[in-house]
Each structure stands twice: as structure tokens, then as C-alpha cells.
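Project outcomes to date are best conveyed with an example. Our students and postdoctoral researchers have been running inverse folding experiments weekly, and each run begins with a structure described purely in C-alpha cells. The record below, which covers 292 residues, was selected by the lab manager from last quarter's runs and is presented without edits.
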């Protein structure tokens, strides 16, 4: 019989479903999940402050660039590489985008994939605030037109409805994060990988810990954007070089250490085992006056 785990979710994004999400779907194969307003474990995110009304064990999860605050949570799943004494598990939000098996290239027909790349480069962005991303789009557009399917610099007649369907025909995809931040790698890198469109990546300087940087253009391997564009032009004009990138595995080993469900479940087992062995931080700080 599966162990019963009493949980709740608060402060997640609009449209988040407590009964159908990455965590409940992962855990339900191994635990009997009881969603309740009086949980033993509270999962909370960055879109509110309802978590402060709970004094049980708190588990923080962030899809945004926010580091865990262990005055507010007992455990965390975040972008941080540091485990803080087993209190944090690195779980980048790209984990929710794909099964690791979908990124394995063992049977990839490189020539067939290459034959389908009939367009140059795409850019699908709705956030105008990243100046590096804007600068790079403008610089690369001086070489060839970059098709923009998002709200920013849209030049394809409107926003695309299906991003993956849009980018699959392109040789390159500008895959810049919203900001520069160690550890912060999101779905922006995974989406072109799933379509075998060569990502031009910028954001996490340590992305090589997650993925094989020979399989995409990692801007952090270059001194500046001008050098990056020189490399793109070289690849664009050398079919064999492009195919070499396509043939490289996405992972440094057989898979990603951060997409390993067994390791994630092991961390959950550890968290659940601590329920009666720790005093939740919410009760600790409330007792000494941090919370009213």
C-alpha cells in the first residue's frame, strides 16, 4: 500500500492545477496524495504570499530567477547548483518541458533533419526587457533576416500560436534567457533542441554542466556577440559543420543529472522522512517573532 502524503500548493502561476502538475503526477506513482488545507507539506512558489499562513514543512519551487530563502522554506527545488546540506535540489524548469528520452539522438537521421531546415533563424520573444537579446537580434539581422514570431519585433504577420511547429523548419533559433544568471536555464534552450533547430544560447554561464555545448552555439564560449555571429555565418555556409553540430548528443553523458526522476524521487523521500525530525522554519521564526 502506498504511503499517504498530505500536501497542498499555494502561490503558483495562474492556471496551475493542484491535482494535475509535474509534482503530483511524479509522486502519485509512489504515494497516495491527499490534497488538503491542513497539509504536512506545503509546496509554494513565487507568485504570492499565502504560504506565510502555513506552519507545516514548506517546500519552495521556482520557475523564475529567485533563490531559495531558508528563513521561509525548509526545502527547495530551484535553479541553484548548491544543495545547502540536502535542503535544495536543482530542478530547472526545463525538466517539465520534455522527457529526457525525447532528447536522445541515437537514431537521428542527420541528413534527413538537415534537408528540412529550409529557413535561416527564428526569434520568438514576448519580453522586451533583456537588452542583450535585443542587441543580438539586431546584430544577426544585419547578416540575414531573422524571422520574429513573438510580440517583440514581430515580422511574420502576427504572433505564432504553436512555437515548436514554427521553429522546426529553421536552422537556428535564438535561445536567450530573460537575463544572465548562473544556473538559470529554462525551456528556451529545450524547445529548439526538441525540433533539432540549432540553439544560439545565452543566459547561464554554467550551462555546460547541464548540456553538451558542442551540440549548440553557446555564447558564453565567445568573447563577444560579434564572434558568435562570425561562427553562425561559418556554420550557415558549411553544411558539414552544421551536420556535425546536429550529430552531437545533447547530454554530456547518457542523460541529464537534473532530469533523472529516480534522483528527484529520492530527494522527495528524504524530505518526507524529515517530517517528524525537524522543526519547520515557519514555527521556528514565528516563535521568536519573525512572523506575527
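After processing, the design step wrote out the following sequence:
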Amino acid at each position: 500500500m502506498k504511503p499517504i502524503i498530505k500536501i497542498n500548493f499555494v502561490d503558483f502561476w495562474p492556471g496551475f492545477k493542484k491535482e494535475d502538475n509535474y509534482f503530483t503526477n511524479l509522486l502519485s506513482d509512489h504515494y497516495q496524495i491527499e490534497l488538503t488545507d491542513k497539509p504536512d507539506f506545503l509546496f509554494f512558489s513565487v507568485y504570492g504570499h499565502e504560504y506565510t499562513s502555513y506552519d507545516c514543512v514548506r517546500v519552495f519551487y521556482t520557475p523564475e530567477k529567485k533563490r531559495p530563502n531558508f528563513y521561509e522554506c525548509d526545502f527547495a527545488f530551484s535553479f541553484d547548483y548548491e544543495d545547502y546540506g540536502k535542503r535544495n535540489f536543482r530542478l530547472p524548469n526545463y525538466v517539465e518541458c520534455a522527457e529526457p528520452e525525447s532528447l536522445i539522438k541515437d537514431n537521428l537521421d542527420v541528413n534527413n533533419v538537415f534537408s528540412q531546415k529550409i529557413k535561416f533563424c527564428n526569434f520568438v520573444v514576448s519580453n522586451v526587457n533583456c537588452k542583450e537579446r535585443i542587441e543580438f537580434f539586431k546584430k544577426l539581422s544585419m547578416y540575414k533576416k531573422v524571422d520574429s514570431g513573438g510580440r517583440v519585433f514581430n515580422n511574420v504577420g502576427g504572433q505564432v500560436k504553436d512555437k515548436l511547429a514554427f521553429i522546426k523548419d529553421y536552422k537556428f533559433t535564438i535561445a536567450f534567457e530573460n537575463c544572465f544568471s548562473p544556473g538559470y536555464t529554462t525551456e528556451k534552450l529545450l524547445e529548439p533542441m526538441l525540433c533539432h533547430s540549432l540553439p544560439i544560447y545565452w543566459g547561464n554561464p554554467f550551462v555546460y554542466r547541464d548540456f553538451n555545448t558542442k551540440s549548440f552555439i553557446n555564447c558564453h564560449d565567445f568573447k563577444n556577440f560579434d564572434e558568435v555571429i562570425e561562427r553562425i555565418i561559418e556554420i550557415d555556409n558549411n553544411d558539414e559543420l552544421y551536420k556535425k553540430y546536429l550529430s552531437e548528443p545533447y547530454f554530456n553523458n547518457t542523460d541529464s543529472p537534473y532530469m533523472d526522476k529516480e534522483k528527484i524521487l529520492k530527494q522527495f523521500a528524504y524530505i518526507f522522512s524529515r517530517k517528524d525530525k525537524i522543526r519547520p522554519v515557519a514555527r521556528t521564526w514565528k516563535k521568536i517573532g519573525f512572523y506575527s
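Residues 100-247 form a domain with the Rossmann fold fold (CATH 3.40.50.11660). Residues 287-292 have pLDDT under 50 and may be disordered. The training component of this project remains on track.
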